[in-house]
Design brief:
The protein is mainly beta and 320 residues long. The protein has helices at residues 134-140, 235-240, 245-257, and strands at 5-6, 9-14, 23-25, 31-34, 39-44, 53-59, 64-69, 75-79, 83-87, 94-98, 100-101, 104-105, 109-114, 120-124, 145-150, 158-164, 167-172, 178-183, 188-193, 202-206, 211-218, 225-232, 266-271, 277-283, 291-297, 300-305, 310-314. The strands form seven sheets. Strands 1-24-23-22-21 form a five-stranded mixed sheet, with no helix packed on it. It has a four-stranded antiparallel sheet with strand order 2-27-26-25, with no helix packed on it. The two termini are 15 Å apart. The mean pLDDT is 95. InterPro entries: 6-blade_b-propeller_TolB-like, Strictosidine_synth_cons-reg.
Length: 320
């Protein structure tokens, strides 16, 4: 992998809420995000960051994570407490799209993508740990993540993949023939085929990433898939993942009780539909920490974070 180019936050936009975990951009260059108290916010005016405006769109009553804008202007929300939600951005109405699968309550839904045929695919990060104990799943390496599909017109999702290591971001290839999933706990991207002779099968797409992938975002079929790196590679953690399950469980019990503070290193990747990394941007010491999402908007790379109280705006990389 080539040496990374600098990822330098140029502007910080406070949004009046904690933990803008996912950021997505609309056609007008505005950024939508969800924060810890359940609000869905829209940030406008990023061409002049010091005068950016924050607008309240809706309140989910839970904790929103991954977002997906639909062609009709509605918004899909993965809410870690309430399941998969739909938001009417015109009036702020929130409805439950799906809140159980196979008789089990949906918890820790993480990221979602909608395809042109109306089907919706979304991830569940962990069936064992809640959001506020996410580090326990990373340490124990439970492999309880899932990929789910909701067919057009259905209100009951089906499970497509199980055994994922903290399933997180999800995006479609340019031709929608496969999905790209982020497995945070395995530091890899996984391809799940939707069409062709391999339909229904999963395979590695990009492995041994330089950090732990979180949310992913694609602005259009011709652009790359942007991948946020929520934390660096931790070699002792790689060793722990090869230990026996009782050892990992004991370590997880310690981890969820220990105070967590993210490192100052941040990073993002962009990959194409062959799995090649076309951009790698990183910074070892940054005032903005724990990058859990990235998108492009109004000439900026926009960073979201489960840790921060705002978003960061960075210079986009030069085209290759």
């Amino acid at each position: 992998m080539d040496r990374p180019t600098a990822l330098i936050p140029r502007h910080y936009v406070a949004i009046g809420g904690h933990g803008p975990e996912d950021v997505v951009a609309d056609a007008r260059g505005r950024v939508l995000t969800g924060v810890a108290d359940g609000r869905i916010l829209r940030i406008d005016g990023l061409t002049q960051p010091r005068a950016a405006r924050v607008e309240l769109l809706a309140e989910t009553g839970g904790r929103p994570l991954g977002l997906e804008l639909l062609p009709d202007g509605a918004l899909l929300v993965c809410d870690t407490e309430r399941g998969l939600l739909g938001v009417d951005l015109a009036d702020g109405t929130v409805r439950v799209v799906a809140d159980e699968v196979e008789g089990e309550r949906l918890r820790f839904t993480s990221n979602v993508v909608a395809l042109s045929d109306g089907s919706v695919y979304f991830t569940v990060s962990s069936r064992r740990y809640p959001l506020d104990q996410w580090i326990g799943d990373i340490v124990e390496h439970t492999g309880t993540g899932r990929l789910l599909r909701l067919a057009p017109g259905d209100d009951t999702p089906e499970v497509l993949l199980e055994g994922l290591q903290f399933a997180n971001g999800v995006a479609a290839s340019g031709d929608e023939s496969f999905l790209v999933l982020a497995e945070t706990g395995a530091r890899r991207l996984t391809r799940y085929w939707l069409d062709g002779p391999l339909a229904g099968r999963a395979e590695p797409f990009a492995e041994n990433l330089p950090g732990m992938p979180d949310n992913v975002w694609r602005g259009g079929p011709d652009g790359p898939i942007w991948v946020s790196l929520a934390g660096p590679r931790v070699p002792p953690l790689d060793l722990l993942h090869r230990a026996a399950p009782p050892v990992r469980r004991a370590a997880a019990r310690i981890a969820v009780r220990a105070p967590y503070r993210p490192t100052g290193g941040i990073g993002v990747l962009a990959v194409d539909d062959t799995g090649e990394i076309v951009h790698h941007l990183a910074r070892n010491r940054s005032g903005f920490r724990m990058v859990t999402s990235v998108c492009e908007a109004s000439g900026h790379l926009v960073l979201g974070s489960l840790w921060e109280r705002g978003i960061a705006l960075c210079e986009p990389p030069a085209a290759k």
